[in-house]
Design a protein that fits this description.
The protein is of the alpha+beta class. The chain has 28 helices and 28 strands. The relative contact order is 0.04. Residues 451-600 form the GGDEF domain. Residues 609-862 form the EAL domain. InterPro entries: Cyclic-di-GMP_PDE-like, EAL_dom, EAL_sf, GAF, GAF-like_dom_sf, GGDEF_dom, Nucleotide_cyclase, Rev_trsase/Diguanyl_cyclase.
Length: 878
């Protein structure tokens, strides 16, 4: 803000319109003031005298002295002007000098001070204001003196004349504020005028009393000097208190600006820009201007570092920096200062490198203070060239800028830490991509303005055996590499996130399904390239599912509790789009595809699957789930050796369900243990019932891969056998070939435990999975079951016939019983018998039967063979 005794106008930000309006107003003030001065000069003509020169020089000296001991009053709303002792020499001048001499002395001291301080943009206005002050003072002094002539003291005229000068300049300043479009409340204006009157009253009283005492009291000059000294001491005490108050206000205002800027930055969405860099230049310019106003500096420069890897961001308040390029940060002596305390440099006595830095800035002197945290340089604050005093920056200025810089450093460090925390909250620490919350926030913002967008769900699939062998550190390296490939393929502007594990998500803004499919194919090609791990190369599978708000019709949404709800007429949010993309991804995986778009029918499938999973336990308890049995007979004797237990579910809403529909869903939901326990218990109950009737019929129960991963499973089976009093050889446990061979090392301890119990172990669907003779030889299994797809094709496909024959021969060579599934024709049965296959199972023998129908089937189609030890053997009749 302006800081001289005559700068009673607002300090404005550079604005061509305001500058032009202020210039026109200044010219008008000067013209009116000169015209008024000429009129008063004609009214009060000058009478030359030899004493006028000396009196004039003394008045010039007096006005110069009071100019140097002035203090600024800072008013909210952008107004600043100065309080000084101007009324004291003015009051004396009214007594001892004519109007023209006092006016000349005031102009010489005031305008000369402005020019010496290089304040040129307001010379016209301040010249007019000074002329107006003297003109108003002499006009009031003459009028009041004429009215009091012979009836009152002359000092009263001088007192009122001196008091009218600050009133006139204050009213002129308020008029300038109004013309320049700056708002100022009535209360603030009233307080300002009242303070001016009080201080003017004090100064005028000192001037009048001093003159009267000096001229009318013997040895009065010492009393006047004592009075001036007391007033001067009181002034400096008041000035110090006022300076401290203004410093505290400035510090509070700077803190508020930084806090508001921080709140606005924290409220921004989690884009690629951090909260610390998401700053408004206006906020920092406001901080720089407030520091400049408080210091009375020609220029304040804030150099702030928001990114450790980026150069400092520069904000300049006041005079512009020189046009020539600034030196590099490492070569600038003022930017390499150690510590965090304030330095005061003058070009005249500075070291060469400091002098060079000041020359680069076009500054004669500078206050410089680094902004530091514990280990980081956050920025530098520079104040150039003091305007308000001859002596330049003082100790009060050093304290003020040091305290303000300390607060700024704390605020910037807090914002840096907040930005780090916010970045960590919205980004994945492994890949640096967004995490799920960050992707949700960013995608929600973009979908609000770009509803025609597509959400992609990308899953990177690495074989568990590979990840276990390499370890989690190597798996993380593969995940990081996959994230980089995704970023390179999609570009920096595409929102991309790592959700968990090897699952990624991306938002294609403004894309349709055709474009999304092309991008998905590109991602599959990019991510499927083998990943180098030291000297190894690891292959990974990739599956992509994608969805869009355009497919919202008939979509299933979830409520707060996670239960599905009807999505008709509701715009899907990001979480729902991710769920739908995940449904599409699962559909692609189950269908053997690499890319699949979401369709509304998938949503209904998801709802049905969700209902099946959530209702399964209740179905077990209410009897909706039951066990059917399919007989197995020996070839060629056709003796009934046992049955296979097959689960069935009659749903009250969906009717009879295919096991291929609900068993995978139950297994994926982690409920397969309950299903296994249920079927095993039913099977053992059935075996015990047959044993109580004198029949030895075994039951085969299918196991899940999950059971093979449970090391306690053999103990659970042993407990069940003991509880139902069933010999282990009557229980057969069937395991799919793919389930065993996927991780034979993990399955082997469980299989050995079951084999030790004496339970019969069978490998189901043999020939369709990861057939490995080496592992098959190591596994303690007793049977292999030929997959029904080969048995179906034996009559028409020589290749299937060859496969069946090979499996029979392989099983016998390993000492295993061979069972053929899917026997539906007499020809197939006869061919299997001719090959030496041991057991047949299929619709030719019987469909799966409920317990009641199985009992009827046994009674109708079997006869008891007598004379065979203690056991009863059932033989199938023709």
């Amino acid at each position: 803000m302006p800081d001289t005794a005559h700068e009673r106008v607002p300090d404005l930000q550079p604005d061509p319109t305001v500058d032009r309006r202020f210039g026109q107003f200044s010219v008008l003030v000067l013209v009116i003031s000169v015209a008024a001065a000429l009129l008063v000069s004609w009214w009060l003509p000058l009478t030359p005298s030899a004493d006028l020169i000396g009196i004039g020089l003394l008045l010039v000296l007096a006005f110069l002295v009071v100019e140097q001991v002035s203090v600024n009053i800072d008013v909210r709303g952008g107004v600043s002007w100065t309080i000084s002792f101007t009324e004291i020499p003015l009051a004396i001048g009214l007594f001892v000098a004519p109007f023209q001499v006092v006016l000349a002395a005031h102009l010489i001291a005031g305008v000369g001070t402005l020019l010496a301080r290089r304040v040129q943009d307001r010379v016209l206005y301040n010249t007019g204001a000074e002329i107006l002050e003297i003109t108003a003072a002499f006009s009031v002094f003459t009028v009041v003196g004429s009215a009091l002539q012979g009836t009152g003291p002359r000092w009263l005229a001088a007192f009122t004349g001196a008091l009218s000068a600050p009133v006139a300049s204050t009213l002129l300043a308020l008029l300038a504020v109004h013309i320049l479009g700056r708002r100022m409340r009535f209360g603030a204006a009233t307080r300002l005028v009242s303070r001016t009157l009080v201080l003017g009253l004090v100064n005028a009283s000192v001037g009048v009393v001093g003159y009267e005492v000096a001229t009318n009291v013997a040895y009065g000059w010492p009393l006047v000097l004592a009075l001036l000294a007391g007033v001067w001491a009181l002034y400096f005490a008041y000035s110090g208190l006022l300076r401290e108050q203004r410093d505290l206000e400035a510090l509070s205002e700077v803190s508020l600006i930084v806090a508001r800027s921080g709140r606005r930055a924290a409220a921004r969405p989690a884009t690629g820009q951090d909260a610390a860099t998401a700053v408004r230049t206006d906020d920092w310019l406001g901080v720089a201007n407030r520091i400049r106003d408080q210091l009375g500096a020609a220029r304040v420069v804030l150099r702030l570092r928001f990114d450790p890897q980026a150069p400092m961001h520069t904000v300049v308040a006041g005079d512009e920096l020189p046009a020539e390029p600034e030196p590099a940060e490492r070569a600038d002596a003022l930017l390499r200062l150690p510590g965090s305390h304030v330095r005061h440099f003058r070009r005249l006595d500075a070291l060469p490198e400091i002098r060079h830095a000041l020359v680069q800035r076009g500054a004669q002197e500078a206050l410089v203070v680094p902004l530091r945290s514990a280990s980081h340089l956050l920025g530098v604050v520079e104040a150039h060239d003091k305007l308000s005093r001859w002596r330049g920056f003082g100790q009060a200025d050093l304290r003020m800028i040091g305290t303000t810089a300390s607060h700024l450093a704390t605020a910037l460090d807090n914002r840096r830490l907040l930005a780090t925390l916010r970045h960590d909250a919205y980004h994945d620490p492994l890949t640096g991509l967004h995490n799920r919350p960050g992707f949700r926030q960013l995608a929600t913002e973009l979908l609000a303005t770009h509803p025609g967008s597509v959400v992609l769900r990308v899953d990177l699939e690495v074989q568990p055996a590979i990840s276990d062998a390499l370890g989690y550190a190597w798996y993380d390296r593969i995940t990081i590499a996959a994230g980089r490939r995704l970023r390179d393929a999609l570009g920096e502007d595409t929102p991309l996130a790592r959700l968990e594990g090897g699952a990624f998500a991306a938002l294609l803004v403004g894309a349709d399904f055709e474009r999304a499919h092309e991008v998905a194919e590109l991602l599959v090609a990019s991510l499927s390239v083998p990943y180098p791990v030291d000297r190894l190369t690891v292959e990974a599978g990739v599956v992509v599912g994608y969805s869009s708000p355009a497919t919202s019709e008939g979509v299933v949404f979830s409520d707060a509790a996670g239960a599905p709800r009807d999505g008709a007429g509701v715009e899907p949010d990001v979480d729902e789009l991710l769920k739908r993309a995940d449904v599409a991804l699962r559909a692609a995986r189950s269908g053997g595809d690499r890319v699949r778009a979401y369709a509304p029918s998938m949503g209904q499938m998801f709802l049905r699957r969700f209902q099946l999973v959530t209702q399964f336990r209740q179905a077990l308890e209410t009897g909706q789930v039951s066990v059917h049995y399919q007989p197995k007979v020996a070839l060629p004797s056709r003796e009934v050796l046992g049955v296979e237990a097959l689960v069935r579910w009659v749903h009250p809403e969906f009717g009879r369900l295919d096991p291929d529909e609900f068993v995978p869903a139950v297994e994926a939901a982690g409920l397969v243990d309950a299903l296994t326990d249920f079927v095993l218990d039913k099977a053992l109950v059935r075996i015990r019932a047959w044993m109580d009737r004198g029949l030895r019929i075994g039951v085969a129960v299918n196991l899940s891969v999950r059971s093979l991963a449970n090391l306690d499973f053999p103990e659970l089976v042993a407990g069940a056998l003991e509880r139902h009093r069933v010999p282990p050889e009557l229980l057969t446990l069937e395991l799919t070939e793919s389930g065993v061979m996927a991780d034979p090392q993990r399955a082997l301890p469980v299989l050995r435990g079951l084999h030790t119990l004496g339970v019969v172990l069978a490998v189901d669907d043999f020939g369709t999975g990861y057939s490995s003779l080496a592992y098959l030889r190591q596994l303690p299994v007793d049977e292999v079951k030929i997959d029904k797809s080969f048995v179906f094709g034996m009559g028409s496909d020589l290749g299937d016939l060859a496969v069946v024959r090979s499996i029979v021969e392989l099983g016998h060579s390993l000492g295993l019983v061979v069972v053929a599934e899917g026997v539906e024709e007499d020809t197939a049965r006869d061919q299997l018998a001719a090959m030496g296959c041991d057991v047949a199972q299929g619709y030719l023998i019987s469909r799966p039967l409920s317990e009641d129908r199985l009992e009827a089937w046994l009674r109708a189609r079997t006869a008891q063979a007598r004379g065979l030890r203690d056991e009863t053997v059932l033989t199938l009749l023709s």
